[in-house]
Design a protein that fits this description.
Layout lengths: L4 H13 L2 E2 L10 E2 L12 H4 L4 E5 H6 L5 H5 L5 E5 L5 E5 L2 E2 L3 E5 L2 E2 L18 E8 L13 E9 L5 E9 L3 E12 L2 E12 L33 E15 L2 E19 L2 E20 L4 E18 L15 E18 L4 E20 L10 E2 L3 E19 L2 E16 L9 E13 L4 E12 L3 H5 L12 E14 L3 E13 L2 E6 L2 E6 L2 E14 L4 E15 L7 E2 L6 E10 L4 E11 L2 E3 L5 E3 L3 E13 L5 E9 L17 E9 L1
Parallel strand pairs: 7-10
Antiparallel strand pairs: 1-36, 2-10, 3-9, 4-5, 5-6, 7-8, 9-10, 11-12, 11-38, 12-13, 13-14, 14-15, 15-16, 16-17, 17-18, 18-19, 19-20, 19-21, 21-22, 22-23, 23-24, 24-25, 25-26, 26-29, 27-28, 29-30, 30-31, 30-32, 32-33, 33-36, 34-35, 36-37, 37-38
Length: 672
């Protein structure tokens, strides 16, 4: 079912006619930030983030800009570029680093597929998110290994002092439907939160300017797109997020959390592959607590279990839409991750804050493929033998924030990290690998409004299971860890009460880079050469006295690779050199709020089959949202919203097939 933008606009104003407006100040707060979802104790871990760049995407940002998934929200952060990967998944680059080089967490719990070491961020809706914290550069050593590019922590909501309930529904083109329920409250020293959502669509429309006969991704190419609804862009997503907490007082807290995602989705066509996830399920349960033993000593701990299963199926449907190199008829993954962490904080007041941490994580992956008569290279048909792989990762860290005087803070720390493959199909296990990762930094408050900082740190990313063991991808069990030295210098300045400006310059020298190369005519993962990533980020936020808020973010980035010390540096593929984001929001006195965002992405390249550099087109994408808040009764309010994505119907891509054209979404939200 297609719904025209004229109908959506009519529905928006029709409901507005029959309801009275209310000022934005009367809206009820929709849950609080789950502070135990942070890895560090809030209020005692802030100084480490003051020596590197940290961006926060708040719950208000998510709602005002109409973000639907975590991938959408992260696209707005300076230094982040979200693209589409080989299974149709959303994957990001953070300051030029691949997502495998970035640690992604949900409430402090690792969020990844054990085999690949990354997660499709498009599979995680924003419905229960209170904020997203993006830490770049030399993040705290207590985060452990695999943080070369930084850390992203998706922190969810918890119940507040007053009961809150909201019901949201929205509709768009191609049978797009979203239903979301939130509820939270406190009962004495206990609080709880529940989010449940259902999202579905038949897919997204390509731009009207898309040419089905274009030689890059039109008919007959690896993408074989003929316009209209992009093939295999449909999905159904179901989410449940719950938590119950006990807060004896401000010094003692204990929370049990559960996060569940059950999805079905097509995989956008690439490399003439026609795949569908008939099931993609991931859930985790965690228990987290903290307690102040004395005025000096505080402890925090977390244990967790993550379960991931998925079934990927070849869904070729006719002679023009058939997988060219069929690796399987079905491929099933059954993974789990279990682990925990413990931290001790020694707070010596104005003198020093010592943080000591230890963590353990076990990744287990079981894979089984089904071959039919059309599977490439199949010898035995039917279900193949199960393949099981398992890795243990240990990390021990200590860091100290030394406050020489009120304006100057020095920070130094080191982690000792161990990667121990304990099980591999075919007996390909190897010895454990150990690394030391030191770092140091300083921040100086020049004035109350001006702060400068600098940091340097060594970061390590261990090889993922796929890179070590995959036959199809060219696994190499002899890979070394990938390492970088991260340098950053920056400053932030506040002008009065209305303007905030920050700027950071960064440089990363990456060695033992894990990449693929044909060895004896066969693709294989190897450690080869080095990479250099350097750049500049700037952010400006303005709050005017006229209910108008403005935001501007700019990233200038250079990412280059070379095979060895005698080879020249070449530009990295699919890494934009420039990215500009503009955010404008205006609140009217009668409860109407309007927001507009524009994003420019430019100067990125890819390489053709002959390794020639091919420039990709620059593009602007503009989005907008209108939200009218109405009062139904003293306890019930309604929000009616209209969202428009890619307003000017830009036809664009980033090397992985055409992206969505213009789309509209209209919805209602009842809060009480």
């Amino acid at each position: 079912m297609k719904m025209s933008w004229k109908l959506l606009l009519s529905l928006f104003f029709l409901v507005a006619v029959f309801t009275g407006p209310v000022s934005a100040g009367e809206t009820r707060k929709s849950g609080e930030v789950f502070d135990l979802g942070d890895v560090l104790i809030m209020g005692k871990g802030d100084e480490i983030n003051s020596i590197t760049s940290t961006n926060i995407v708040s719950g208000d940002d998510i709602e005002m800009q109409g973000f639907q998934t975590t991938a959408d929200a992260l696209e707005s952060v300076p230094g982040v570029d979200v693209q589409v990967g080989g299974k149709g998944q959303s994957t990001l680059k953070l300051r030029g680093f691949d997502q495998r080089d970035v640690k992604v967490l949900i409430d402090g719990v690792p969020a990844h597929e054990a085999y690949y070491g990354s997660l499709d961020l498009d599979q995680i809706p924003v419905d229960a998110i209170a904020k997203i914290k993006v830490i770049k550069g030399a993040s705290s050593v207590l985060y452990g290994p695999n943080t070369m590019g930084g850390v992203i922590n998706i922190i969810t909501k918890k119940g507040g002092e007053k009961p809150y309930t909201s019901v949201t529904t929205s509709f768009g083109e191609n049978n797009t439907q979203n239903y979301i329920v939130n509820h939270g409250a406190s009962v004495g020293q206990f609080n709880y939160w529940i989010t449940a959502s259902h999202r579905t669509t038949d897919g997204f429309e390509l731009s009207n300017d898309f040419d089905p006969n274009n030689p890059r991704n039109g008919i007959g190419t690896d993408y074989n797109e003929d316009g209209g609804t992009r093939d295999l862009s449909y999905f159904t997503k179901n989410t449940l997020n719950t938590k119950i907490g006990y807060e004896y007082d401000d010094t003692s807290k204990l929370y049990l959390s559960f996060d569940y995602h059950q999805n079905e989705k097509g995989c956008l066509t690439e490399s003439q592959r026609y795949w569908e996830f008939t099931d993609w399920t991931q859930w985790h349960a965690s228990l987290a607590g903290e307690h102040d033993l004395t005025d000096i000593v505080s402890v925090r701990g977390r244990v967790y279990y993550v379960d991931h299963t998925d079934t990927l199926e070849d869904v070729s449907w006719d002679a023009s839409h058939t997988t060219s190199k069929k690796w399987f008829e079905q491929s099933a993954y059954d993974d789990y991750t279990l682990g925990g962490e413990a931290q001790v904080y020694l707070d010596f007041g104005d003198t020093s804050l010592v943080k000591i941490g230890a963590s353990y994580m076990k990744d287990n992956h079981v894979q089984q493929d089904f071959y039919d008569a059309t599977t490439m290279g199949a010898v035995t048909l039917g279900w193949q033998p199960e393949e099981e792989y398992e890795v243990d990762i240990y990390s021990f860290g200590i860091e100290d924030e030394v406050r020489l005087f009120k304006r100057l803070t020095l920070n130094g720390g080191v982690s000792f990290d161990i990667h121990d493959p304990v099980k591999a199909y075919g007996g390909l296990t190897r010895d454990s690998v150990e690394t030391w990762n030191p770092q140091a930094g300083a921040s100086f408050d020049v004035t109350k409004e001006l702060k400068i900082y600098a940091s340097v740190g060594k970061k390590t990313r261990f090889p993922q299971m796929q890179e070590l063991y995959s036959n199809l991808a060219g696994g190499n069990s002899n890979l070394n860890p990938q390492q970088t030295i991260a340098y950053e210098i920056g400053a932030s300045k506040r002008f009065g009460s209305a303007i905030d400006f920050s700027v950071a310059a960064f440089f990363n020298d990456i060695e033992e880079r894990i990449t693929t190369q044909k060895v004896g005519g066969v693709k294989q993962y190897i450690n080869k050469g080095e990479s250099e990533i350097k750049g500049l980020e700037a952010q400006l936020n303005i709050v005017t006295p006229w209910n108008l808020d403005l935001g501007l973010g700019y990233t200038l980035l250079s990412s280059e690779d070379r095979a060895d010390s005698t080879s020249p540096f070449l530009k990295s593929e699919y890494v934009p050199e420039q990215k500009l984001t503009i955010d404008a929001r205006y609140a009217f006195d009668f409860g109407l709020s309007a927001s507009f965002q524009a994003m420019y992405t430019g100067d990125q390249i890819e390489y053709d089959n002959a390794d020639n550099e091919v420039p990709l087109d620059d593009f602007w994408i503009c989005n907008a949202r209108l939200n009218q808040n109405f009062k139904i009764s003293d306890k019930i309010t309604t929000d009616i919203f209209l969202e428009a994505k890619n307003i000017f119907d830009k036809n664009y891509e980033e090397g992985h097939g055409p992206y969505p054209g213009r789309s509209f979404l209209v919805g209602l939200k009842f809060s009480f």
